[in-house]
Structures are given as C-alpha cells and as structure tokens.
Amino acid sequence: MSTLRTSSGKxxxxxxxAVILVLFAGVGxxxxxxxxxxxxxxxxxHGDKPAKLSMWKLEEFIVNLADRDxxxxxxxxxxxxxxxxxxxxGGEGEGNPxxxxxxxxxxxxxxxxxxxxxxxxxxxxxLKTELKSELNTVLEGAQVVxxxxxxxxxx
Length: 155
Hints:
The protein is α+β, with helices and mostly antiparallel strands and 155 residues long.
C-alpha cells in the first residue's frame, strides 16, 4: 500500500496548503451565498427585520416665541422620519388624530423657545431633540427617528 509520506516522513507542504486554500474558499463561498440570500445585509442579533422608515411632512408652523421684551416669531416646516409602516402619520386630509397630536406637540415645544435659544446651531439641535422626545411621547404606534427642518425663519 502506498502512503503520502515523503522520505522525511512528512506530508508535502503543497498538499497542506491546498487543503487550507480549499477550506478558505468554502468558508468564503458559504458567507457570500448567505449574504446574497439576505440582500447583502448581515444577520442582526435577534433575526428581526429592520423597521420600515417613512417620511411625514407637517405643514408650516408660524408661532410666537417666548421672548417677553420683543415680539418675535418663528416660521418653520418640519419633515419627520418615522419608524413603522407609514400608517401612523402623514394621512392626507383633515381629521387625522395623529397629525393633530403631532401639531399640538410641536406648537407646545416651539412656543416655549426664545429667539436666543434658537439662533445658534446648538440651539437648533436641542430643538430637534426636544421635538423628537415630545412627539414620541404623544404619537401612538409611531416612533420619530429623525427630524428635518425644510424651512426655518425667525424675526
């Protein structure tokens, strides 16, 4: 019976390297096919699908600011990025209770602000944080992921 041993009693290095190469190719092919089957996305830890994001544009707001000495106002338009199936908000037409809740929450937050609070970039970032928190408190079945200003003017 013939064996694969050389005169020194060891397997040739070429055979060992070939086996290692085949193993790496197999692992690579397995990983590639799994990633491709999942649409190019790696497994998440819980097997959950990522939440569907939708955009909800709120009509323009014009509110008086909380400045006591000066009569100041803010004119702003918002777009909300919402996690969910899109049914939570953005329904067209009047009578959408979610839109009424959202508009009320936004007006409540905006009218507490002063001109000096909103003039800086940091103030605008803080406003987004407060709006997001307030909206997530009042909206049912929806989660605001991000807020975008589509217009912002103060006087």
